[in-house]
Amino acid sequence: MPRLALYALVVCVLSVAAAVVSFVQGSWLGIVWVLMAGLSSNMTWYYARRGRGGRGSVTS
Question: Which residues span the membrane (predicted)?
């Protein structure tokens, strides 16, 4: 797995944890963390597929 995909995966996991903590504390700021988790999840899939040379990969 490429390095950028691993970084995006770490951000995704930390965002989910932050969202859980925010919602447990009763803060609606958790919505922002959920959106960030979704974005970083998509980035993880993109960079993982790009690194494997999967279908639809972007070449530069």
Answer: 28-48
- Specify whether the CB–CB gap between 15 and 33 falls below 8 A: yes
Q: Which helix (H) or strand (E) holds 53?
A: none
| Model pTM score | 0.79
Work out the pLDDT band at 2, boundaries 50, 70, 90. Answer: confident
Query: What tokens appear for 38 in the block?
Result: 């979704």
Among residues 22, 52, 16, the alpha carbon closest in space to that of 37 is found at 16
Amino acid at 17: A
